[in-house]
Amino acid sequence: xxxxxxxxxxxxxxxxxxxxxxxxxxxxxxxxxxxxxxxxxxxxxxxxxxxxxxxxxxxxxxxxxxxxxxxxxxxxxxxxxxxxxxxxxxxxxxxxxxxxxxxxxxxxxxxxxxxxxxxxxxxxxxxxxxxxxxxxxxxxxxxxxxxxxxxxxxxxxxxxxxxxxxxxxxxxxxxxxxxxxxxxxxxxxxxxxxxxxxxxxxxxxxxxxxxxxxxxxxxxxxxxxxxxxxxxxxxxxxxxxxxxxxxxxxxxxxxxxxxxxxxxxxxxxxxxxxxxxxxxxxxxxxxxxxxxxxxxxxxxxxxxxxxxxxxxxxxxxxxxxxxxxxxxxxxxxxxxxxxxxxxxxxxxxxxxxxxxxxxxxxxxxxxxxxxxxxxxxxxxxxxxxxxxxxxxxxxxxxxxxxxxxxxxxxxxxxxxxxxxxxxxxxxxxxxxxxxxxxxxxxxxxxxxxxxxxxxxxxxxxxxxxxxxxxxxxxxxxxxxxxxxxxxxxxxxxxxxxxxxxxxxxxxxxxxxxxxxxxxxxxxxxxxxxxxxxxxxxxxxxxxxxxxxxxxxxxxxxxxxxxxxxxxxxxxxxxxxxxxxxxxxxxxxxxxxxxxxxxxxxxxxxxxxxxxxxxxxxxxxxxxxxxxxxxxxxxxxxxxxxxxxxxxxxxxxxxxxxxxxxxxxxxxxxxxxxxxxxxxxxxxxxxxxxxxxxxxxxxxxxxxxxxxxxxxxxxxxxxxxxxxxxxxxxxxxxxxxxxxxxxxxxxxxxxxxxxxxxxxxxxxxxxxxxxxxxxxxxxxxxxxxxxxxxxxxxxxxxxxxxxxxxxxxxxxxxxxxxxxxxxxxxxxxxxxxxxxxxxxxxxxxxxxxxxxxxxxxxxxxxxxxxxxxxxxxxxxxxxxxxxxxxxxxxxxxxxxxxxxxxxxxxxxxxxxxxxxxxxxxxxxxxxxxxxxxxxxxxxxxxxxxxxxxxxxxxxxxxxxxxxxxxxxxxxxxxxxxxxxxxxxxxxxxxxxxxxxxxxxxxxxxxxxxxxxxxxxxxxxxxxxxxxxxx
Length: 1029
Description:
Elements: E1 2-10, E2 15-23, E3 38-39, H1 66-71, E4 75-78, E5 81-82, E6 89-90, E7 97-98, E8 103-107, E9 119-123, E10 127-132, E11 135-140, E12 154-158, E13 162-168, E14 173-179, E15 182-186, E16 189-195, E17 197-203, E18 211-215, E19 220-225, E20 228-234, E21 243-247, E22 250-254, E23 257-263, E24 276-286, E25 293-299, E26 301-314, E27 317-322, E28 329-333, E29 341-344, E30 347-351, E31 355-359, E32 365-376, E33 381-386, E34 388-400, E35 403-407, E36 411-421, E37 425-428, E38 431-437, E39 443-445, E40 450-453, E41 456-459, E42 463-466, E43 469-473, E44 492-495, E45 498-501, E46 510-514, E47 517-520, E48 524-529, E49 535-537, E50 540-541, E51 553-559, E52 563-565, E53 570-579, E54 582-584, E55 603-612, E56 615-618, E57 629-635, E58 638-643, H2 652-655, E59 660-665, E60 668-671, E61 678-680, E62 683-692, E63 695-702, H3 727-735, H4 739-749, H5 752-756, E64 766-780, E65 786-802, E66 805-820, E67 828-843, E68 848-866, E69 872-890, E70 892-893, E71 898-911, E72 916-917, E73 923-926, E74 929-945, E75 951-964, ...
Parallel strand pairs: 4-8, 7-10, 8-11, 9-12, 10-13, 11-14, 12-15, 13-16, 14-17, 15-18, 16-19, 17-20, 18-21, 19-22, 20-23, 21-24, 22-24, 23-25, 24-26, 25-27, 26-28, 26-29, 27-30, 28-31, 30-32, 31-33, 32-34, 33-35, 34-36, 35-37, 36-38, 36-40, 37-41, 38-42, 40-43, 41-44, 42-45, 43-46, 44-47, 45-48, ...
Antiparallel strand pairs: 1-2, 1-3, 5-6, 38-39, 59-63, 61-62, 62-63, 64-65, 64-80, 65-66, 66-67, 67-68, 68-69, 69-71, 70-71, 71-74, 72-73, 73-76, 74-75, 75-78, 76-77, 78-79, 79-80
């Protein structure tokens, strides 16, 4: 059993989930395959990783006012007002300032902002503001809607090539809450904020040309904050905003946490050209080594990379949550940015967007993105590419909930570790490849660690080159050709494209595909399955996609136990290379052995078969002429068929059906079943070949053949050999005969002395006795199939003396283990017997005795063996027996202490035959059995007596002969009758003792052996204890 991980679809989470599962991949012949959809060691939780539980709450809008600021202890500073004109006008700050205490810089309703003077702080010359440890809060409460003469304020503006610098300590902060079209506008110059915290909030009055921050070309904007940077667009008074941050110059945002988002009570407008959070042109740096989080919230586009000169992004986590509208995107690339960017998003999380990553700009767009982990939960497309080139590097794991779609010459390169594509990948005239990074930090062709996808579809001259541990799981829903244009369920679909999946197998490459492969329009598919961890569960088919469509080609290589489980007839000829690979036609989609029916037999067509040591598992009906078939147009190498064993008897017509046909070539085929034979019913069969108009055909025939080179002089007309028995038949014939039960009866019965000890001279009225014994013996079954047996017996009895009669009964139990003595059979058995004896023993004073015993025994026997395909088979039978025995004997004293005791016994035993079936379908019928055994024996020994003449014990030797007068038995296996008889003579010998430590207790025992024609007792040891009262 191999421990692996099962990938299943979890509806509640909408994702492929990876869970531990113990699976058994069919690598051993004849073992039931439980083929689970498994990624070898795929990281549990890629689909439901901790990212989902670690979504960061975005900051809410502030509730700052001038009044609340004063109550917080802020100094209130109103912008200066010019009252020389018609209306009072606010004057911007244009010179250096120091703020050593917390200050709220305010514009209220007492004045207006005049066009070209509508700024809180305006740098036309170099300007510096020292915050020290304080907080500077800029609040626009002018509340004057713009007219023809007035506008709302921009909080900070830099032009004329000037610089504006805010400098503060780690505990300082700058907080802005503005109105109008911009909060910050760097038109021509530089703005540098170096402080502890930065908060910029804008309630814009109109959508057009609105930005929280705008940096024009040849200008720069830098925030270097010790802690947080926050940008929030308040859309409570507008339909939207163009961009939260629009950069055409140079922008640097450096902080521990960076937040850019929108607060919109109602989503008022749709389309892609609104509510874009960050649009980057020119030069940009967002985050550095200290940055723990970049959070982009509720934008139509989270991050847009336009015409950049360079772009660096670095953060331990990147969270982009959109507004959920159509055309919403987490990341949008609209330029050739691949070689101009360094992007490390750490742990990435995209949600509430229609598209996760978009590269759809004409004529061309490119990007190189790196994440430690990524969870892309876009609702429509995880990645959307049109003339795009994306290199996606993942250090640990990535999950894409929806489809990856690439068209019109796009290229997607995957680098790194684990990728899960929950709905699959679709290519149209595009390229998908896996790659690695070499020592020069260049991306070159190579392997990813692991990749899992629901399906891959490649059309219109697309190219797929995937290397590494690959799982493709379609869910195995059967696809008809009419479904292919509607994105039906398949594992791979190739229309006029090239697909290579681990075609250059390495020791680290694992290929696991569950679902059908469709190839049309001259498409080419090459699959490499390197070892027993790799498998393909499905079939390969052509499909119609228009009148001009033609099928393509598939080349598949299976090595070292790699498996192809064919789920239905394979209609597209495949080039198949088997070097220790396995092809199974005998299983269903779940890896269970599929019962053969007329409508589920499978045909496999192989265009070119090569390699060496491949195994095909096929099914054939045993009565009618149908089953699995393999057609090889051109074959080479030595391969094998493994045919399921059965206990049912086959018909000749069914046996002679062609299992594999070779049109041309030098193919060598043999049976992979043990010994090169297949057991069907009572006998075993060989794989033989014949030449017909169809080519060379291999079929089954029985093994009973005339010797190939008979000796013409001594035996010119030899008789055919007897058919060879199947393992099941050998097991049944060995153990289902009555020889074992008959031997058990006679050993349980035994003789009087062995059963009860010395009962002469007993003065007490009652006796309670117990005995236990063990023995190892051998006996013959049918057709010279012998059995070795170890048996253990237990007896418990009670008797009562009435005059010269000793009358009693005992309960008996036996447990035995059996195995065949034939070295080429692996049959085993277990037998349990429970029963009772009733006996009456007459003892005369002159030493003569008569012992009469009636017996009942119930037997439960289990027979197990292995068939030639490696599968186990078993059967159980219950029957019972009745017996009656009479024994006489007399003890003669030779001298004072020595004695001799001749004995004679006749025992009849009848066993009821029972019909039963083996688990593989073999039907067994037992006839009743009759046994009549006579015994003549003698015991010679010495008594030991005390001074008072009381017998304290004795030792003795014994011997004799037994003769079976009946013993005929019949058995039918699948109506094939077998006869045997157990008539014959055997001799036995042994020694024994009895000890009487006092008048009430006797301890007795013996050791005995027996040798005969049909039965041999290698050893028997028995001990008994009798208590008289």
